[in-house]
Request: fold
Amino acid sequence: MSEVAPRQPFLRQARSTGLWLLTFILMVVMCVPGLWVVLSAVRPNREILAKPPIWIPGELSLTNFSKIFGLGGEAAIPVGAYFVNSMVIALTSTFVALLIGMAGGYAFARYRFRGKGGMFLGLMLFRAVPGIALSLPVFMIWSKLGLIDAKLGLIIVYISLNVPFTIWLIDGFFRQIPMSLSEAAQVDGCTRWQAFWKIEFPLARSGIAAAGVFAFLTSWNEYALASQLTRSTDSKTLPVGLMDFTAQFTIDWAGMCAMAVIIIIPALIMTFLVQKHLIAGLTFGGVKG
Reply:
């Protein structure tokens, strides 16, 4: 027994070190594509297409960014219009999806009603359908309603895609909050709305922030449906605008990577601003009651 006991701390340390090493390797593998995009955005096209690949850029410049904005005498890509379209569509769909998700999640968590389990299952099954599978029926319906090449059409689609997920996520957070807190507030004179707004909402705001971030990123990065439902600069989003860099025989990889960096930056900023709530929300609502 005396020989086995000293080996246990060593085995635990070896297991921990191996786990950290594996995590580090996985993180490097995940970060390499993003790092390649960022480096390609600040170097010329010839280095991107070089064989063998040039991992360390020979020169760095912002020429690719100036070109897509038309500052270098090149034909400008309407990046500003695409950015505004993406921001309006993503923020509006996220805001509406959160409102519906909060109402639906609270109702599923706090109330009992006939068909509750079936409705919840139906929402989850709808969310499991890939967006690209809905492109043809949505296109046919939207063409009849005149919603093709309109921001409203894309906003409605993204709300429909995000509502089931936000309801599921927010439902899990409200289930973690004891019902006794709301009941005690109502005993002290609060209405049901006041108990929700002053007691339950502050406790669940981390989870709501997490749902909002995921809904925003879904709308911001979505390409398949946006490419089918948009046509002009009045409604095209940034991911769809990436196709402006493709021609019949060539692809402007440098300009495309510069545009990709512009797409990445707002998502990173938003995630950074709410990272405290995001981490707290994911850990707090990770287990449903």
